[in-house]
Amino acid sequence: MDAVRLIGVGRRALADSQDAPDIMREAWQAQALAQAIGSRLAMLGPLELRGEALGLCEAGARGSGGSAVPVVGAGGIRAAQLTELGDVRGALIDLGALLGDVGIALVAVASESFEEGAYWQCMEAIDAADESRDRVLEILRRLPEQNSRLADPGPEPGSDSAA
């Protein structure tokens, strides 16, 4: 699935989240998506952005890893559905907005949390979303206008994609 569409699915899922576990799950999903987009951009993007893209990948990994990984649910890990970046600039703008929404939702969860462990888990997730968003904004700042679309390579040689 195209990155922009996948991010849209994530934004709708976050908006539909009803409680703290749902919001934490969507924060985790957003970070996994940031990791996947950063990885794809590091492999296929302009050479001058690969360091920043790796930084986004690492920041996303910190936000989607660890011992507090939520039960993902029936839809699985959304980031695994990423097949192409398509409009890189649009995807990064939307990803930045998603990460901002995640941070706001997590602040609400943290402020309503009565358990100290849950509060600190939210604070760590807020920091991770903020770091990922900062990386996205830096990539956007440095993204050359002519590279706003990347051509993903076709199927691997020898793969059976012709039917």
Keywords:
single chain, 163 residues, mainly alpha, 0% strand, disordered C terminus
Précis, in short:
It contains 5 helices and no strands. The protein has helices spanning 3-16, 20-44, 50-64, 88-112, 116-142.
Overview of the structural elements:
There is one protein chain. This protein has 163 residues and is an all-alpha fold. The protein has five helices and no strands. Helix 1 (3-16) packs parallel to helix 4 (88-112) and helix 2 (20-44) packs antiparallel against helix 4 (88-112). The longest helix is centred in the C-terminal third of the chain and has 27 residues, at 116-142. The two termini are 20 Å apart.
Number of helices: 5
Number of strands: 0
Radius of gyration: 16 Å
The amount of helix comes to 55-70%
Q: How would a crystallographer describe the biggest sheet? A: none
Instruction: Return the structural class.
Output: mainly alpha
Distance between the termini: 20 Å
The percent range for strand residues is under 5%
Secondary-structure blueprint of this entry?
Layout: H1 3-16, H2 20-44, H3 50-64, H4 88-112, H5 116-142
Helix pairs in contact: 1-2, 1-4, 2-3, 2-4, 2-5, 3-5, 4-5
